[in-house]
Amino acid sequence: MTGAAPPVLVDIGINLAHDSYDSDREAVVRRALAAGVRQFVVTGASVPGTRSALALAEAAPSLMRATAGCHPHHAIDLDAAAFESLAALAAHPLCAAVGECGLDYHRNFSSPAEQRAAFERQLGLAIGLRKPLFLHCRDAHRDFMALLRAHAADLPPAVLHCFTGTGDELDECLAQGLHIGITGWICDERRGLHLRDIVGRIPAGRLMMETDGPYLLPRDLDPKPASRRNEPMYLPQVARAVAGARGEDLATLATHTTRTAQAFFGLPPLDVGCPHPETTP
Fold it and tell me: 77: Cβ–Cβ under 8 A, 6 or more apart, which residues?
């Protein structure tokens, strides 16, 4: 007798083009499908990374969409030629959102001024294309919100991925109309437990689930995997932590977060009765 099928989830932030997956990318996808993670939004964080993300989406269009963006770490590289290339990629039918874009003052691999300039250009791109935004913010909340408010009248729907901020910051993001992506940060007893106290504030319809793999392996996995590489098969661990913090059962959380992700990113309908045969090359 087989057990019940796992709840259906969508990983809205997976860096599946990352070279750490090069040796077993198809197996990564198959493990995720077996765990109930049935669709993926592949993050584009640079022009080359966006090309790779779109290639994966083209190979499995019922499973995947891509984003097209320049992460704030790479803002220094977004010159006129790079932006022209990014704009062309963002217009691709399988590009579901502009980003990953935003501000990151934690390491400042690009200067704050370069980050703000690149962010504004990508805000303009999303507005022009009328595509959603896939946003990043770390240690830059004030400037991040100021730029969003400056364009508030024209902004398309937007999700702040991998939210790690405070309760007050969450309230500001929600008041601005942002969707919120939650990762395995919530499973990190060193720095993420505050999220368990505030994640219940996010209304159903504004909350989505993501791994941000290969980063942010949930620290509460038991047994712990031999590798520190995160992958989408671990998204149910994140979802269980979020559901528990919200006082929901996992099936309820999976239902509303999957519905939200599919609508936000324009993902095709799922046949929840059987795993999909498509995988990446």
Answer: 46, 47, 70
Task: Please give the span between the terminal C-alpha atoms of the chain, in angstroms, as a whole number.
Answer: 33
pLDDT tens figures, 179-190? 999 999 999 999
- Which residues have a Cβ under 8 Å from the Cβ of 235 and sit 6 or more positions away? 9, 11, 32, 35, 37, 209, 210, 211
Q: Which amino acid is at 205?
A: G
Q: Does residue 277 sit within a domain?
A: no
Q: Residue 2 — pLDDT band, cuts 50, 70, 90?
A: low
Positive or negative torsion for Cα 148, 253, 235, 17 = negative
The range of the structural domain enclosing residue 100 comes to 9-265
CA 279 distance to own-chain centroid: 19
Residues 6+ apart with CB under 8 A from 44: 17, 50, 51, 52, 53, 54, 66, 67, 68, 69, 89, 95, 99, 100
| Whole-number Cα distances in Å, 270 to 41, 151, 220 | 15, 34, 30
In a domain, 116, yes or no: yes
Tens digits of per-residue pLDDT, 100-124?
999 999 989 999 999 999 999 999 9
Residue 272 inside a domain? The answer is no
Q: Is residue 280 part of a domain?
A: no
Cα distance between residue 235 and residue 250, in whole Å: 12
- The pTM of the full predicted model, rounded to 2 decimals, is 0.95
pLDDT tens, 192-221? 999 999 999 999 999 999 999 999 999 999
Residues pairing with 203 in the sheet: none
Give the number of C-alpha atoms closer than 13 A to the C-alpha of residue 220, restricted to the C-beta side.
19
Structure tokens at 136: 């990043």
